[in-house]
Give the backbone structure.
Amino acid sequence: MNIHLNRRSVIAGMAAMTATPLIGSKALAQAKPFEGRTLVSTGFGGSTMDIVADAVFKPFDAQTGATTTQMPMQSNAALARMIAEKGSPQIDMYQFSGGQEVDAVREGLTQAIAETDQIDALAADMRDPDGNWVAWAVIAEGLVYRTDKFDTPPTSYQDFFRPELKGHIAFPAITNGYGTDFLVMLAKTFGGSEDNIDPGFEAMAKLKDETIFAAASDIPTLFGQGDIWLMPYDTGNTYKNQQAGLPIAFTSPKEGSPAVKITACIAKDAANADVASAAIDRMLSPEAQIKIAEGMRWTPTNPNTKLPADLAQHVPDVTQLVSLDRAKINESRAAWIDRWNREIAS
Amino acid sequence: MTTALPMPAENAGRGGKIPLVPVLLLAPAVLLYLVFFVWPQLALLMLGFQDRGGAFTLDLYVRFLSDSYYLKLLWRTLVMGVATTMITILLGLPLAYLLARARSRWATLLLIITTFPLLVSAVVRSFGWMVLLYRNGFVSDLLQWLSLTDGPTQLMYTLPGTIIALAQVLLPIMVLSLYAVFRSIPPDLELAAMSLGARPTTALWLVTIKLAKGGIFSGSLLVFSMAISSFATPSLVGGPRAAVMATSIYDLTVTVLDWNFAAVQATVLLVAVLLLSLIYGRLLNGGGIKT
């Protein structure tokens, strides 16, 4: 076979070679549907926000061309912001950890998330029937204890009342979502429920002289300088403080670990609702869910996520968790806070 | 703005002299105050007289004033403010006097060190106090070492703990207010008093401290109003058990979403400060000036 190299064929060949990358980049540009778009989401702040960024938003931005920013905001503050911005939202997407999505939907502050196979695959209690929110992770609450102070790990909410632990108990204030759940679980432990909270208040009144704290940021000093041995909290913060060197561990009580849903929803009239929908779908992808479980010990909600065995033993499965009646809790919150301020904190 | 400007000129033309320059100088600040302070403050005031539907009601004020829990909250807030102010006066007076009278070149350095805490965020300072005030913290250990207490003392999540932390946070404000006044009082006045037979302590009390009353008043007012409106220190060091008005307003706004009642508490707090300041100003001036 003879190859005739003349000037024309060489030029044509070179032109073809230089054109190839151009075609390539053009195809890539078409694959980036949100080039030049921005997405503003709330975030939980601190290392949580960084881990979520690494697991979800950075790969999402790289793939779609969007630019996502997370604004650090606690869930309560985020809902207040959402209400304040009703009608002209500056924030497209909201992340909640305290059941605020239920209020947000009721107040008409949200819109439906574009439906995808991953959203359809979620368990019924992990998504809004009308598609306004999805739970992209679940945090298991339970008992956090000093491993050097317990010969055998605590097993029950009853352990808070053991006389030898007097003075070494801490629990979060009711304005903290975990404080509310602790009250509900105490009620359940002593024969009550979300509908019958009195046993919870009666039990908690016996703990009123113990340390009451406000936020997760208190945990390191409580276990360190505070001489605290047992408190109700969650897997994620236990892991964070274990990494900081505290001798503590998490265990699920026999009454069950309440599940805290970590949800996402889109503000009504948000300018970048389509970008937010795609980002939320990304949150549900098994790769993102595994990374979040690795980084924070948060339980994946996508049933198709298979955690590696060594990770799975530290992350309770979503089917093992107790779902509390969030609608009832939200409805009663104001009254409970008021009662708590008088009966427990004073 | 458009109607405000021609008017002075018009009046000036008629002979009622309203000078243009001061009006122009004042206009930006006044405008800023109207838009960003007076108007929102009025809106807040209105909010407190409305129920959730927007209808006029006095129920929220009745709720606040007839409930011992909220009155206790107000009382605790005022106690916190007064105690913090008194501690800063006690610590600040000698310090500011020393700084103002010192001739050494170390004086400037001392002044910088005194005011340095102002450069550190209140949150960071409060975290520092948290570490010190816990049951196994430094303060508790120190008290036991001095044999002042038998067992560990928990100052975290208590009102005294909050007051200690706030006093440290606000001491520089008091020192700066007093420093400026002490500097403006000539030392010669004390010398003159002594040459007329006053003992040094009497001279200090009758001349310098009494002349510094203006500084004590303005310093107290600043410290008091900053103490009772501060949020970071009470919420971090005081926590839920030592709740004060500021943390209650925060909880109502952010957690309970009852903005109307939050507005009532904010207004009550404002009125309480104004009243207390008036009384304090009267006491301080009334007791001193004898003609």
User: Anything to note?
Assistant: Chain B has one domain: 68-288. Chain B has 14 helices and no strands. Residues 68-288 of chain B form a domain with the MetI-like fold fold (CATH 1.10.3720.10). The interface with chain A takes residues 69, 72, 130-131, 134-137, 152, 154, 156-157, 235-236, 239-241, 243, 251, 253-258 of chain B (CB under 8 Å).
